[in-house]
């Protein structure tokens, strides 16, 4: 537990961050500012998110994150290799996914409680954004922390890059994802099966959330792996749960 003085300093840092956010010229600038502070001063970032959830959550998740994902490769964001950038996998990791998880995440998988995985094919209402879909996984993780109180250090935003059928994204200067059409069929199913089983082995106490997969793959993955490990698809089961409620 923090001392009273330490808590006051943290609250002051959080309030200072909120003031900076309010001074930014537009929402995408606010998004990049918040992502930068998330990486450089995570305690202040999460304190601000907890104190001003209604104000800040729309800036780090919907609706702002859609614009961010659409131009993800052009934004100044935490670099790959940092937990704040998320964990990237690709079709090139086939056969070595478990080793990739162990080497690319800075802490022990046994401490992980939530993994949010996307392949970037159906990002919000924007469609196939390829590797830019990582912004959705990062944003969804923040919901777990801000709303459910899950330790951010126990959450892993993850993207499996299998290419993109969006030619504008694929050919954009500076695009950092796989510049190839999407992997399909048995090759895709085999790769995703390896990813799911690797997550189970690496993070045996985690729940896996499938996020913004295309409709065909979303249903297929859920049917194939619902007994492999604790998992759910927010777009299928989350939406249905809210509708039924």
From TrEMBL:
Residues at which a divalent metal cation binds: 211-212, 235
Active site: 61 (proton donor), 140 (proton acceptor)
Top-level taxon of the source organism: Eukaryota
A single GO molecular function term of this UniProt record: malate dehydrogenase (decarboxylating) (NADP+) activity
Keywords (A to Z) from UniProt: Metal-binding
Entry-linked SMART domains: malic
Metal-binding listed as a keyword: yes
GO biological process, one term: malate metabolic process
rRNA-binding listed as a keyword: no
Positions with a binding annotation for (S)-malate: 122
Manner of cofactor binding, per the entry note: Divalent metal cations. Prefers magnesium or manganese.
Protein known as: Malic enzyme N-terminal domain-containing protein
């Amino acid at each position: 537990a923090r001392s009273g003085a330490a808590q006051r300093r943290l609250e002051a840092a959080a309030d200072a961050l909120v003031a900076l956010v309010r001074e930014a010229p537009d929402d995408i600038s606010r998004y990049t500012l918040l992502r930068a502070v998330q990486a450089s001063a995570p305690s202040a970032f999460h304190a601000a998110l907890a104190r001003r959830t209604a104000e800040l959550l729309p800036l780090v998740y919907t609706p702002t994150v859609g614009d961010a994902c659409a131009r993800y490769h052009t934004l100044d964001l935490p670099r790959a290799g940092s937990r704040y950038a998320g964990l990237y996998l690709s079709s090139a990791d086939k056969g070595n996914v478990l080793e990739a998880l162990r080497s690319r995440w800075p802490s022990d998988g046994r401490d992980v409680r939530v993994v949010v995985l996307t392949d970037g094919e159906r990002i919000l209402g924007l469609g196939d954004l390829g590797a830019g879909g990582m912004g959705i996984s990062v944003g969804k993780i923040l919901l777990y922390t801000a709303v459910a109180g899950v330790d951010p250090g126990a959450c892993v935003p993850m993207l499996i890059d299998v290419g993109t059928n969006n030619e504008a994204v694929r050919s954009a200067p500076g695009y950092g994802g796989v510049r190839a059409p999407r992997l399909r069929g048995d090759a895709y199913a085999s790769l995703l099966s390896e990813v799911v089983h690797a997550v189970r082995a690496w993070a045996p106490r985690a729940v896996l959330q499938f996020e913004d997969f295309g409709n065909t793959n979303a249903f297929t993955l859920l049917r194939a792996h619902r007994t492999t490990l604790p998992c759910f698809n927010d777009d299928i089961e989350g939406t249905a749960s809210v509708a039924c409620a």
